[in-house]
Design goal:
414 residues; alpha/beta; Carbamate kinase; 2 domains; 20 strands; globular; binds aspartic acid; binds magnesium ion; EC 2.7.2.4; ACT-like_dom_sf; amino-acid biosynthesis
Length: 414
């Protein structure tokens, strides 16, 4: 069972989570629960760091950020003990989560779950601080924003759990962000492949790495509300999905920046150098477009999108290469992206045409396009994103009966 930040934000909610955990235990299950930091605690800690340093040391950042989820776990253990059950809280390191050494974005290499299993054997409920581990160099690491999902999935795989339940502040995975599309539909089932594309293109409900990990290890995810008992969304392998709708969801993100490199020498190896430089700076490139030179001077242009928070890092990283080759770097900080995802589009022509026509009819200019077999993404001006999401959601008729209740908060969807 994993509880997100909103689900443990205050004492009342934390006690409610404790009660839910205890109910599971009383129903005869052995329970490992992963908790996120409370409310906006991680944001606060990041802000604290930037108050004392313009570029906080990554190792120390991880020491700092890992405290948020520890607080949640210790408090929850206290609440569970008061309910007459035994609970122990563990840090990621104590729980045996071993990662690589890339601070603030570490990857899990191994889970040595023997301490968890022996605590379970001793009839404990085990609470594990999400989003963190210990590196092969014995330093505390964190797994990137939203990383508690990955902790939960990794532990579920390591202990051979029946299911990994992700308790969140939305009722499940939706056909679009309900804050933008109020009649978005809750999806009962979604395939790993679709969920991967959705997480990668902006659906914040599950961290991308957690879905990857679940697919690779065959972990069944049930994403559901921590505020009621309704079933949420089950993420399963493609063979297990009964229906294959043409389009499953519209996702979006507004945190994109575009970098354009003008005047790249048009010879083999340049694209490799640009992308290697960015990879070494740990900047994740999303879409890439390169135009072949049309003029005689044999200079090419390349544009790519990256997370906006990585823009300064990217510019710094590319500075030397740009100077060496006389490349001009232009940036645009306010790009957004809208995507449609659906396993059914693999075998249906005309989906792209419908996407582009719909956006055109709404006077939304498409700046870049990328596709996968089950996704079409368009980069559009950041302020057009909500319009684009609504237009596509309605063009593909994604609304349905299973709409959400208006009183529900939507914090973790974004
Ligand atoms: N607390 C971390 C974050 O805010 C990890 C998580 O909540 O999953 O990103
Ligand atoms: Mg989350």
């Amino acid at each position: 069972m994993k509880f997100g930040g909103t689900s443990v934000a205050d004492a009342e909610r934390l006690k409610r989570a404790a009660k839910r955990i205890v109910e599971k235990r009383e129903a005869g299950h052995r329970v490992v629960a992963v908790l996120s930091a409370r409310g906006k605690e991680t944001d606060r800690l990041i802000a604290d760091a930037f108050e004392v340093s313009p570029s906080p040391d990554p190792r120390e950042m991880d020491m700092l950020l890992s405290t948020g989820e520890r607080v949640s776990c210790a408090l929850c253990a206290m609440a569970i003990n008061d309910l007459g059950h035994r609970a122990i809280s563990l840090t990621g390191s104590q729980a045996g989560i071993v990662t690589d050494t890339s601070h603030t974005k570490a990857r899990i290499l191994d889970v040595r779950a023997d301490r968890i299993t022996s605590a379970l054997d001793d009839d404990n409920i085990v609470l594990v601080a999400g989003f963190q581990g210990v590196s092969t160099a014995k330093d505390v690491t964190t797994l990137g924003r939203g990383g508690s999902d990955t902790t939960a999935v990794a532990l579920a795989a390591a202990v051979g759990a029946d299911v990994c339940e992700i308790y969140t502040d939305v009722a499940g995975v939706f056909s679009a962000d309900p804050r933008i599309v109020p009649d978005a539909r809750k999806l009962n089932v979604v395939s790993f492949d679709e969920m991967l594309e959705m997480s990668a293109s902006g659906a914040g409900v599950l961290q991308l790495r957690s879905v990857e990990y679940a697919r690779n290890h065959g972990v069944r995810i049930h994403c559901r509300s921590s505020f009621d008992d309704q079933p949420g969304t089950i993420v399963v392998s493609e063979e297990d999905t009964v229906e294959n709708p043409l389009i499953t969801a519209v996702t979006h993100s507004t945190g994109e920046a575009r970098v354009t490199l003008l005047g790249l020498p048009d010879h083999p190896g340049i694209a490799g150098r640009v992308t290697t430089t960015l990879a070494e700076a740990n900047v994740n490139i999303d879409m890439i477009i390169q135009n072949e030179p049309v003029t005689a001077d044999a200079k090419a242009d390349m544009s790519f999108t990256i997370p906006r928070e990585d823009l300064d890092t990217a510019k710094d990283a590319l500075a030397a290469l740009a100077a060496e080759h006389g490349i001009e770097i232009r940036t645009d900080e306010s790009m957004g992206k809208v995507s449609i995802v659906g396993a059914g589009m693999k075998s249906h022509p005309g989906v792209a045409a419908k996407v582009f026509t719909t956006l055109g009819e709404h006077e939304i200019n498409i700046e870049m396009i990328s596709t996968s077999p089950i996704r079409i993404s368009c980069v559009v001006p950041g302020d057009k994103v909500p319009d684009a999401v609504r237009a596509l959601h309605s063009a593909f008729e994604l609304s349905g009966p299973d709409t959400i209740r208006p009183e529900q908060p939507f914090g973790e969807f974004a």
